[in-house]
Structures are given as C-alpha cells and as structure tokens.
Amino acid sequence: MRFLIRPVLPLVGMLLLTCGCGDPFNRQAVSGTVTYKGQLLEHGKIEFSPLDGQTTLMLAAIDNGQYRIAAKDGLTPGKYKVMINAGQGASRVPTGPPGSDLGPPPPEMIPERYNAKSELTADVKKGEPNVFDFTLK
Fold this sequence. Notes:
Elements: H1 2-18, E1 30-36, E2 39-40, E3 43-50, E4 58-63, E5 66-69, E6 78-85, E7 120-124, E8 134-136
Parallel strand pairs: 1-8
Antiparallel strand pairs: 1-2, 1-5, 3-4, 3-6, 6-7
C-alpha cells in the first residue's frame, strides 16, 4: 500500500497548486494619478465603490498626485463609482487630551461632482493594467 501512496503525493500537490487556491476574487492592482486644476493633487483619498455587486470597496491615499492599490488588496473586476476627497489647509489634530476627538474636518476643496455626487467611474478588468487617471477641474 505504501508504494502506491508515494507516486500519488506529487500529483495531489500539483493539483492543489493548479486548482486556483490563490485569490478566489481575482483581485486586481489599481493605480493612477489625480490632478486638480492642472496640478497634481498633493494629498487626498480616493474611494472605489462597487456598482456591479462586487464585494470589494477600497479606499486609498493620494500622495503627490499618485495612488496605488496592490493586487493582494485590490479590486475585483467590475464597474466602480470613484470618489475623491481632499481637505483644505491643516490636517485634523486632537482638540483635547490624548485620545480625545479630532477637531472638525478641514473644508473639502474638491467639488461634489467628484465625491458626494460623483460622476467618476472606473471599469476594473481582469489581467489588464487598470491604470485610472483623473483630471479634476
């Protein structure tokens, strides 16, 4: 019996590797640039909200106009509503002792048509570069 098991073990191992035991959601890396009024957006955040029933909602930081979401944390293929936010002025700081609430958020500098009432979309596709650049006015 033992002589039958040895040749079968490598086959079982190969089957496990090829069965798609990796990411069952086919997450895709997403990246791009964001410009506002002709300049790279210094700091902000970008959110991808599913439109086609996908299970992934993703938020990423924008730094010097660039954002990147790695494949391991990426988006499942499909269409997404994109919302971009950036506050004017200083970032939020605690208003009291450590652990207290943050002060009021800075005023939003990005128009609502790019966030609360966003007109932006992205169509994430499996196996494609998925680079989405957004030019905001």
